[in-house]
Design a protein that fits this description.
two-stranded antiparallel sheet; globular; 9 strands
Length: about 230
């Protein structure tokens, strides 16, 4: 990736991030789209001396390219409402699903809870020429007024039981009538069955398992499709 080809704002963000972290661009093929994703090269730099075993919340989970996010990206680029539809990605992290959705035609809003995460997303958006994309600092407990969306998505966002009810509220409040929520998680995620049971009160829930090969290992991903009753 030739950094000189980035738009001015994204190039300035890249140079600022480069002063703090070792960086590289990963290239991924999602259907007919080649997505360039800015990633940190050294997790220790992000930890900044914190011990993740002492406090798991200190670990920068957002900086990992999760297998579930790759699966979700493939789903979104094939979504029938991609041309002109609005897509909201919750807990977007590096932003692969949202960037892929934008490349496929969605008007996309990527959200997360730290500015540095949004900075990585914005550089990646610039590297992919994404024009139909916005980025927003987002607190699930104090959600802003951002309108409604045809599709809502998230990959590996059910990491603790405390987020289950807020996530359901977000889906109910932001989804248009007839809209769809896509969630993708490692099948071993312990909060997943608890969430799905709660979701069945207000949503029709569909599930399918998808196996993805990565780094020589098979990973089982559960994809859930939620639509309001």
């Amino acid at each position: 990736m030739d950094i000189r080809t980035l738009p001015d704002h994204q190039r300035a963000l890249y140079n600022s991030l480069k002063k703090r972290y070792s960086l590289h661009f990963a290239s991924l093929k999602i259907a007919d789209h080649t997505i360039r994703l800015l990633k940190p090269s050294d997790m220790e730099e992000l930890l900044d001396g914190q011990d993740p075993f002492a406090d798991i919340s200190a670990f920068p989970f957002w900086a990992k390219l999760w297998e579930a996010s790759i699966v979700l990206a493939h789903i979104l680029v094939a979504e029938p409402r991609r041309q002109g539809g609005r897509f909201l990605e919750l807990g977007a992290g590096l932003g692969l699903p949202g960037i892929a959705a934008s490349a496929a035609g969605f008007e996309t809003l990527l959200t997360d809870n730290e500015q540095v995460i949004l900075d990585f997303q914005q550089v990646s958006a610039g590297a992919n020429g994404s024009e139909r994309m916005e980025h927003l600092l987002f607190d699930w407990l104090h959600p802003p007024e951002i309108g409604s969306f045809d599709v809502i998505g998230g990959a590996e966002i059910l990491y603790t039981e405390e987020v289950l009810d807020p996530l359901l509220d977000l889906c109910k409040n932001y989804l248009v009538k007839g809209g769809t929520v896509y969630l993708a998680h490692d099948l071993r995620r312990k909060c997943l069955p608890i969430f799905l049971k709660k979701a069945e009160r207000d949503f029709h829930v569909g599930s399918r398992k998808q196996v993805i090969q990565r780094n020589g290992a098979a990973v089982d991903i559960l994809v859930n499709r939620l639509q309001r009753k």
